[in-house]
Write a structure and sequence with these properties.
Blueprint: H1 24-30, H2 34-49, H3 51-54, E1 59-60, H4 63-83, E2 89-90, E3 97-98, H5 110-118, H6 121-146, H7 151-162, H8 165-168, H9 176-198, H10 201-215, H11 220-245, H12 248-268, H13 270-282, H14 294-298, H15 304-308, H16 341-353, H17 358-373, H18 381-387, H19 401-421, H20 428-454, H21 456-467, H22 473-481, H23 483-509, H24 513-532, E4 538-539, H25 541-545, H26 549-557, E5 562-566, H27 576-579, H28 594-600, H29 617-622, E6 625-631, E7 643-647, E8 650-654, E9 662-665, E10 668-670, H30 674-682, E11 692-694, E12 712-719, E13 722-729, E14 733-740, E15 745-749, E16 752-754, E17 757-759, E18 763-768, E19 771-779, H31 782-816
Parallel strand pairs: 5-6, 10-11
Antiparallel strand pairs: 1-4, 2-3, 6-8, 7-8, 9-14, 12-13, 13-19, 14-18, 15-16, 15-19, 17-18
Helix pairs in contact: 2-6, 5-6, 6-7, 6-9, 7-19, 7-24, 9-10, 9-11, 10-12, 10-31, 11-12, 13-31, 16-19, 17-19, 20-21, 20-23, 23-24
Length: 818
């Protein structure tokens, strides 16, 4: 008979062992409130990083913000608050230019609009940038979660992306549109990934909505880059899904939904996209009338120095509020493309060890972005230049590096996921291979760090001798001054790789995975944080945006005259006087009307003044430039014009020969070729009061005055988008308004419409019969009106789609629950 097994007895007084529950860390990551904790954490980190601005009444510094951004936004905010509408015409710079069509910043971007309406403008411009750094952390986290990455890995993705110096450094130049696009871009990948997996209508509507917001930022070039990657990832997902399922119906449905998303995006952004697209194609200097070509397309490329700087931060130096050590090949460099060593390092780990075919797409998109950003540095850019549409009309290829940042944030998160979930359980030989790779990398980096520390000047000389011939003396001096940045970067990179090696070694032997990964993240955060801080500074707005006494003088004396600002760098902006409501002959924009750009002599303003700064009066007289403002330390050379103001380092000269802004002319000549017309106008012998040059034969016939008679032509109302004149003519004449010609302007004589002719190649003229008349110029853009309606209808469609979708989901769940 078999013996019964005796039940094991517990030692007297000892309780049965309880199974171990989840650790505190596991409970933290499993918490339903984890996303809230994550959001609060990155919000606090963001506020600390921008503490100088956040905990003060200062303004966040941005060079382009001061150069033009403050003027553009101030004009918009004041006009909107006064009228409840968007201005259509900016009369203050470059003879006037369309406000919406020519892109004056984030006019319709809803997030920044809210900030501008709530906060004082000088604070709003900074707060919206701080918010978008935080938003980048949220959107990248959500994107990583869509790829089924864990909460820790997704959190790392958010941190990699939001604190990447590429993004934060854009604060220094004030490139808000680039920051907006970068922060929104992960949502496009998230919605596309989810939509392609779920065949979800709402996800594709979400994709279209974000595309529309990206276009409204508005940064057309980065929006265009975004569409490249979105389209490429759609094709990647479509092909891989078709190969997996062999379903034509599914492929067709997904294709239709993707097309719907693109249509929704374009329609939502129609109010900005279509007027802007038409303007750039037909009326901008970038419409083939002066700017373009390979040299233009490759300007502001990354170069070899910036490429090395992707591993050794600030290798090429920087122009920031703290230092001027940039020695690279661009004119200057006030941002960096560095995204941090950790996402690149973890991205390499993912490529070697993480099992997910999607990693190869993002590796490819990252490599593509880097090659494109290098521009003319490599001959590969010729392929992009000749094969990709519109590349010839774009410049600054380094803008595409936001794609590199997202790609390696996602790859880096995949690497973190491997370390967290698979490294300890992976085969010993694979673990050893990774550890050996890190040890070799740290050794190589350490050796390079020793060489640059012991013989920095010699290493720089060797580098420049091989890769950078012909460096000028100023850049040479900057490179010597930048040696400290290079040495620190190399040593920190060496320490970082060694620390990662040590922590992975610890993970391999003991179960402290989450703690070790968190320590790696902290080290990575320190790596980027020290770079980020170099690009953040704040200042007292009154120091730069207060009205100089010269402004007060001009405001007292100028009515409808223009001024020519020749102070160069005396004031913080080339739009400084325009900020205070004074109309300038030139200014700062870059997308002014091509016809006006040609009249003033292009980028060099060659028809307005010579190289010494002496004015060329024929064109200035025509444009009504009655006041010429110069830096008092560099007075106007060779002039007979009287100086009427000399105070505080500013001199103002009075040009009595400047014509009124509106004047009659009784003779005309037709000059079809614009360049011939400009040459004629710029001639010292030309008198615009005697003859008006038109670019077509008019339907109106003026009459000569047989003897001098008093005629009147007075501006009685001048508003953005509306000009009213009172005229008294003794004989039929052309009335010239010395404002830029643009087809959206309509003219009326005593309420009756009349044709506007292009005068002197760039201005406006209408035929007016003899007698006393009221003339009105009104800006009416049918393109804008139609586009705005499309945006309104699309917004309603999106809202209805989400409401119906949410209600349908609830009903479906109730049915499923019985």
């Amino acid at each position: 008979m078999a013996k019964k097994k005796r039940k094991a007895q517990q030692p007297t007084g000892q309780q049965p062992a309880k199974p171990k529950g989840p650790s505190a860390i596991d409970r933290f990551f499993d918490s339903p409130y984890y996303f809230v904790y994550y959001g609060i954490t990155i919000a606090i980190l963001t506020l600390i990083l921008f503490g100088e601005f956040v905990f003060s009444n200062l303004m966040l510094f941005g060079s382009d913000t001061l150069q033009a951004g403050v003027f553009f936004r101030n004009f918009f905010v004041e006009y909107f608050k006064a009228t409840g509408d968007v201005p259509q015409w900016n009369p203050y710079i470059f003879g006037g230019m369309p406000f919406v069509d020519a892109f004056h910043g984030d006019i319709f971007y809803p997030i920044s609009f809210v900030f501008k309406m709530i906060f004082p403008l000088t604070r709003a411009l900074g707060w919206v940038l701080v918010f978008h750094v935080f938003l980048a952390g949220i959107t990248m986290y959500l994107c990583a979660r869509a790829f089924k990455l864990g909460k820790l890995a997704s959190s790392m993705a958010g941190l990699f992306f939001m604190f990447a110096p590429y993004l934060v450094s854009l604060v220094a130049p004030g490139h808000d549109g680039k920051m907006f696009v970068t922060a929104l871009f992960p949502l496009t990948i998230m919605f596309l990934e989810r939509g392609m997996e779920r065949k979800s209508y709402l996800d594709f509507i979400g994709l279209g909505t974000v595309i529309g917001l990206i276009i409204l930022t508005p940064h057309p070039q980065m929006a265009y880059f975004s569409l490249w990657i979105i389209g490429s990832y759609f094709l990647f997902k479509l092909i891989t899904r078709y190969l997996r399922e062999k379903s034509v119906a599914t492929a067709g449905l997904l294709s239709a939904l993707f097309v719907l998303a693109i249509v929704v995006g374009l329609a939502l952004s129609a109010v900005q996209f279509y007027p802007g697209y038409k303007y750039v194609k037909e009326y901008s200097p970038r419409a083939g009338e002066g700017r373009g070509g390979y040299e233009w397309a490759t300007s502001w490329s990354m170069h070899v120095e910036e490429g090395v700087g992707m591993v050794v931060p600030l290798f090429s130096g920087v122009n920031s509020h703290e230092e001027n050590t940039y020695w690279g090949r661009n004119y200057f460099k006030d941002n960096t493309e560095y995204v941090g060593l950790l996402p690149i390092l973890m991205g390499v780990v993912a490529l070697g060890f993480y099992k997910d075919r999607r990693k190869w797409f993002f590796f490819g998109s990252g490599v593509f972005a880097l090659l494109y950003a290098l521009g003319g540095t490599t001959p590969i850019f010729y392929i992009f230049y000749y094969l990709l549409p519109n590349v010839k009309s774009m410049r600054a290829p380094s803008m595409i590096m936001f794609v590199f940042s997202l790609s390696f944030a996602l790859l880096g998160a995949m690497g973190v996921q491997y370390v967290q979930s698979h490294f300890r359980s992976d085969k010993a030989n694979r673990r050893e291979k990774l550890l050996k790779l890190l040890l070799i990398l740290s050794g190589i980096m350490g050796l390079i760090a020793v060489l640059w520390t012991v013989a920095g000047p010699a290493m720089m000389s060797v580098y420049q001798g091989i890769l950078y011939g012909g460096i000028d003396a100023n850049k040479q001096a900057a490179s010597t001054e930048n040696l400290g940045n290079i040495q620190i970067g190399l040593w920190l990179a060496t320490i970082f790789i060694l620390a990662t090696y040590g922590l992975l070694k610890t993970i391999a032997s003991r179960r402290i995975v989450a703690v070790s990964v968190a320590l790696i993240a902290i080290i990575g955060l320190i790596d980027v944080w020290r770079i980020d801080a170099k690009f953040i500074s704040a200042f007292e707005p009154a120091q730069r945006l207060s009205a100089d006494k010269s402004v007060e003088y001009l405001q007292r004396n100028v009515e409808h005259d223009r001024i020519l600002d020749m102070t160069m760098r005396m004031f913080p902006s080339k739009d400084y006087f325009a900020y205070f409501g004074l109309q300038q002959v030139t200014g700062y924009h870059g997308n002014q009307l091509a016809v006006y750009d040609r009249l003033i002599g292009g980028l060099s303003f060659a028809n307005l003044y010579d190289r010494r700064g002496a004015p060329r009066l024929p064109v200035l007289n025509l444009l009504g430039a009655r006041y010429l403002v110069y830096d008092g330390n560099y007075p106007m050379p060779d002039t007979t014009l009287p100086r009427v103001y000399n105070m505080g380092g500013v001199s103002i000269y009075y040009n009595s020969n400047a014509l009124p802004r509106a004047f009659p002319v009784h003779e005309y000549a037709v000059v079809v070729d614009p360049d011939s017309a400009v040459a004629y106008v710029a001639s010292p012998q030309f008198d615009p009061t005697k003859i008006v040059l038109l670019d077509e034969e008019p339907l109106f016939e003026p009459s000569r005055l047989t003897f001098d008679k008093v005629e009147e032509c007075e501006i009685i109302e001048y508003q953005p988008g509306y000009v009213k004149l009172a005229v008294l003519l003794k004989a039929p004449a052309f009335v010239v308004l010395a404002d830029s010609y643009y087809p959206a302007w309509k003219a009326y004589i005593n309420g009756d419409p009349t044709k506007i002719y292009r005068a002197y190649s760039a201005l406006r003229a209408i035929g007016v019969p003899a007698g006393e008349h009221v003339i009105e110029f009104v800006y009416k853009s049918s393109t804008y009106s139609t586009s705005r309606t499309v945006t309104y209808v699309t917004t309603a469609f999106i809202l209805l789609s989400f409401v119906v979708g949410i209600l349908y989901s609830r009903v479906k769940r109730k049915v499923a629950d019985g």
